[in-house]
């Protein structure tokens, strides 16, 4: 015996499927997530300057990208996350400051009020909402850090993503250590 469904049943199934997609993709608007700083960082204890290693890392992020469709200057807005990871299994690192810059090099915001410690193997994220387009296509972060002598530098990446319906695009960029003379 075959199972058959009439046009009314098919129409009802399509409507229910559409409602399910709408309800499933609906997100309650709440306060935006800006970072995990409050949960993961603690006020820093001082590190002896003679026994310390430090650096400034540049990380490109893209809050807006040009689509390049039909020679028009249309753009797409992306959400971006800066991920800072302490790769040491033993020693904490201290983040002195995290600064966000726009495409023309103007500092848009600073993310830390004071130096903060990231525990061994810990990570912290700084989030740029998709609706926050002030950085533009050339946005970037600078992260200044220090730690006890011999500690590896943190791994810092920018992760950008955008979703259209059930399709999405994501990519990442890795931080680059600046030479001491290039540090700001």
Give me a quick take on this structure.
The protein is mostly beta strands and about 180 residues long.
Q: How much strand content do the residues show?
A: 35-45%
H/E order of the elements?
HHEEEEEEEEEEEEE
Q: What is the rounded Rg?
A: 22 Å
Give the strand tally.
13
Report the sheet with the most strands, covering strand number, pairing sense and barrel closure: 7 strands, antiparallel
Unreliable residue runs: 27-33
Number of distinct helices? 2
Query: Alpha-carbon distance between the termini?
Result: 77 Å
What does this structure look like?
- The chain has 184 residues and is mostly beta strands.
- Helix content is 12%, strand content 41%.
- It contains 2 helices and 13 strands; from the N terminus they run ααβββββββββββββ.
- It has helices spanning 7-25, 37-40; strands at residues 42-43, 52-60, 64-66, 75-77, 79-85, 93-101, 107-110, 116-118, 123-128, 140-148, 155-164, 167-174, 176-177.
- Strands 1, 2, 6, 7, 8, 10 and 13 form a 7-stranded antiparallel sheet that branches. Strands 9-5-11-12 form a 4-stranded antiparallel sheet, with no helix packed on it.
- Residues 27-33 have low confidence and may be disordered.
List the keywords.
184 residues; mainly beta; 7-stranded antiparallel β-sheet; 4-stranded antiparallel β-sheet; 2 helices; 13 strands
Give the arrangement of secondary structure elements.
Elements: H1 7-25, H2 37-40, E1 42-43, E2 52-60, E3 64-66, E4 75-77, E5 79-85, E6 93-101, E7 107-110, E8 116-118, E9 123-128, E10 140-148, E11 155-164, E12 167-174, E13 176-177
Antiparallel strand pairs: 1-8, 2-10, 2-13, 3-4, 5-9, 5-11, 6-7, 6-8, 6-10, 11-12
